[in-house]
Specification:
This protein has 972 residues and is an alpha+beta fold. The chain contains 34 helices and 26 strands. A hairpin with a 4-residue loop joins β7 and β8. The longest helix is centred in the first third of the chain and has 19 residues. The protein is globular and about 75 Å long. It starts with 5 loop residues before the first strand and ends in a 5-residue tail after the last strand.
Amino acid sequence: MTLSPLILSRMSRRLSLMLGLSALALSPAFAPMAQAAPATAAPAPVASLVSQVDIPYEEFRLANGLRVIVHTDRKAPVVGVSIWYHVGSRFEPAGKTGFAHLFEHLMFYGSENADGPFFGRLEDIGATDWNGTTWFDRTNYFETVPTGALDRALFLESDRMGHLLGAVTQVKLDTQRGVVQNEKRMGENEPYGLVEYAQLDALLPEGHPYRHSTIGSMADLNAASLADVQMWFKTHYGPNNAVLVLAGDIDVATAKAKVEKWFGNIPSGPAPKDVDATVPTLSGDVEKVMHDNVAATRLYRNWIVPGVNSDELQQLDLAMTVFGGLKSSRLDNVLVRDEKVAVAVKASIQPFEKLSIAEITVDVKPGADPVAVGKRLDQLLADYLAKGPSADEVMRAATGQAAGTIGGLEKVGGFSGKAVTLAEGAVYSDDPGKYKKDLAVYAAATPQSVSAAARKWLGRPVLRLTVAPGERSAADNALAGNAKEEGGAKEEGGAGHKPAYFRDPAKAAPAAATPPAPTKIAEPPIEPVKDLDFPDIERAKLKNGMNVVLAHRSTVPTVRVSVAFDAGNAADDKAKPGTAGLAVALLDEGTKTRTSVQIAEEQERLGASISAANSMDRTNVGLFALKPNLDASLGLLADVIRNPAFAPAEVERLRGQVLTRIQAEKTTPMAIAQRMLPPLIYGQAHPYGIPFTGSGTETGVKAVTRADLTAFHDTWMRPDNATIFVAGDTSMAELMPMLEKQFGGWKAPKAAKGVKTFRMDRMMRPAKIVLIDKPQSPQSMILAGLLTNKAGTDNPVTLQTANEVLGGATSSRLWMDLRETKGWAYGVGTALSGVRETIPLLVYAPVQTDKTGESIQAIRKDMSEFLTTKGVTETERNQTINSQILSLPGSFETSSDLLGAMMRNALIGRADDYYETLPKTYRAMTPADMDKAAREAINPDRLIWVVVGDAKLVRPQLDAVGLPVEMGTLAD
C-alpha cells in the first residue's frame, strides 16, 4: 500500500484503463517502424555509480544520551537540522491510536521559553524545507536554516525537547485535536481513501503494533487528555531516545559546542523500550472487495515482508521494481502496452523498521473485466516467480536505485536529503552509513539472488483487494474508526487492536499533573546572514538559433535539462481541449527509430529520466541525467523531442489513459474544483479559461486525431520557439558540443509558429457559490477565485508579499483563524498563480462539513478586514520580510531549484540576477506599500466560490452565506 507519513505542513501554495483492441491497434500497417537506434556509449556500471555516493560524517553523544551526527557541506550558507525521536504509532497502546501524530502537532505550538506557533518562529529565521512527520516507527522534525540562525533553531528544538509541558494547554490540545481530525477527513475524502485501513486490518493479526493507521480513530483522538500528553512526552521525548543530525555549513567542533550549550542540561528520560513486531504470514489467500467513488477499478496484491534490516529487502525491492516499477516493467509491457487492459500499474516495497509492505496495483481500464485482469495479473506473477528476471532487468532496476539516491543527496535537509539518510540509518539500524551497505547490495544483485527472495516472500498467501466504483459501505467506514454504535455510544478503534494499555480506557482519565515551573532561557539572536549569491548564468546559442542558458552546480554528478517551448495549456486547441496534454504525453511513447519500450529501457540503463509536461504558459521536456551518461541521455532527449511517431496504436492507448485520468479528476475534490473554476473567472474564450488540471475535456480528447497531434508539434514544439535550460555538474565548453550534435541541425518546419491571443471579454462575473454534489464526502473542498489587475510580467513582488500575510504563509491571517483558532481545516490559504498573463488570486480551504458555510463567511470577513480596517501590521511586515530575505540562500540549494528559477525569470522577463536584487526590494517595502498593492488588486466581493461536498448537508449552510447559490455539474 502506498501509505504516507502524517505531516504538519502548509498546503501547497501553487495550485498545481481494456479488453478489446481497437482496429488501428490490430493493424500492423500502423505500427511504428522500430529501426535500429543510433549507437551510444555504454552506460556507467552500477558499481561505479554507487562508489560515488558518500556522506562523510562524524558523531558524538552527550552525557544525557543525545546522539549527534554531523556532516559538513559548504556549498551554501545553510544547515539542515533533523531530529528523530524513536517513537511512532507502533508504540501506541490500545485506546491511544493517533496519539503519536497528535503529539507531533502539539510540538509546533510553543514551549516554555518560546510560546506560540513554532512555524512562525521558523519563518522569522528564513527556514526552508521545514516540517514534522509521524510514522509507524519514528517522529521527526526538520528545518534548513541560514548558518547565522542555527543557534536560534537549536534553541527552539531544545526548548521543545526539554521544556514543553508548561506551555501545553487544554485549548491547544482541543484545537489540534480538531486539526488532526480534519486531516483525517481530508485523506479519507480522496479516492481510495479507506484502503489503508482495510489493508492493515486484513494483513496483520489482532494486537499487532502495526495494525492501526498512524492517523488513528476519531474516538481515540477525542479521548486524548492533558495527562496523556504529559505521559507521552515524559516516556518518549527524552534526549536518550533521539538522534540529532546537522548537515551543511558546519563542522563537528562547532556542532559540539552548540549542541552541548542548548541540549546538554536536558535530563535523560526513561530507558527506551522497544515494541517488537513479527513478520506475519496469512494462513491463506484473502479476497476482499470494497466500493468507493472512483473512476477505475483498482486491484491490489499485498504481502507483509521483512523490515529494513533484513538482508533480503533490497533483493525484494529489485524484484518488485522489475515486475511493476520500471517504465518497461513486466506489468507495463503486458497489461498496459500489449493487452491494453490497464491504464496504470505499480509494484513496490514500502519499508519500515520491523516489517515492510509489498504492494502491486493495477488500475483496470474502464470496460475491461476486472476479474479477468486479476487472473491475468496472478498468471504473470506466477510466471515471473518461476522464471525470474533477466540480468538486464536487474541492472536497469539497480541503476535507477543508484541514480535516485545520487539525485536525492543534493539537499542537506528536507524530506530526502543527507540529514534524513543519516538519521534513518542511525534510528532504524544503529548505523548512519546503512545507505552505503544497501547500495552495495543493489549493485551486487543477480537474477538468482532476486529470484530467490521473490519466490520466498511473494510465493506466500496474498491479500487480493479490489476497489470498484460504488458507494462506500458502513463496514469500510468502520475500519477507519469512524463508525458509531447504536444509541450514540463512543466510536471504536480502527481495527480492534489490543496491545498493552497505557491505562484502563474504561476508567476515568487521571488528572493532569501541574507542570514544572518554566526554566527561563533567553532566545539567542540571529547572527549576520549574507544576502543570496545566485550562481552566475551563462548563455550561448546553437547554430540553428536555439538559446542555451546554464547554471553550474557540482554538488553531485548529475545534470538537469529542460527544453522549454512557448506553448503550454494556454496553447491548447479550444475546439478539442486536451490536444496539448495528449501530444505531450505521447512524446516518450515512440519515435521514428525507437519504440515506447526501447525508450523506457534506454532511460533505465542510463539512469536517466525524461519527463514532459505542460504548465499554463510553457511546454517543458525535462531530463535528469547522470554526468557520465550525459551525452547518451541528451541523444535520447533529442529524439523524443524532435521525432515523436504519434503511432496510432499508441495514440489510442494514451487516449484511454487520459480519459480515465479525467474521470478520476471528477472523483477528486480539489481536481473537481480546479476543473470548474477557471471558466467561471476567465470566461471560456480566454486561453486560461480551461481546467487547471491540464487534461482537457472528455469530448475534446475523444475528438483529437493523429493529424491534430502532429500539427500541435509542428506549430509549437519547434527550435524557433524553444530555449534549452541546463543546471548541474557541467560547463558550457563541455555541454555545447553535445547540444550542437543533438539539436544544432534541427530546422523549423514550414508551418507557421503558434501565437496565443490573450483578450479579456469584459463580461461582469458577479460573486456566487457553485455547489458540486459529492455524496458521502466527510469534508467540503472550497476553492474560490478572482482576477487581479496584475499580470505575471508586472512582477508584482509587493502584492505577492502582502499575500503572504493574508493567506500565503503558515502564520497568515486565514491559516491562524480557520486552522489554529477555529480548528475547522487542516490547511487554508491564498495563492497568486504563477502565470505570465492575468494573475488569479485563489482561496482554498478543505473544511469539516458542518462548518462549510461558516468557513466561507469567516474567510470573507478576514479578507474584508485585511483589505480595509486591519491592514498589514509592522510586526507582520517585519516577519514576512525577514522570512523572504533569510530563506533565499536555502531556496536554491539544488540544480532543480536553479533550473526552476532560471525558467521563471525567462517566463516573465526578469534579469538573470533578479533574486540577488530581491533583498533590497524587500527592505524598502512598507506596510502601507503592501496594503496599497493588495487593495488595488483584490476585491473580495468579486470572488466566485466553488464548493465540493455533500449537498444535502452543505446546501442549507450556503444559502445562509448571502450569495447566490447554484448547483454545478462536470458533464465534460
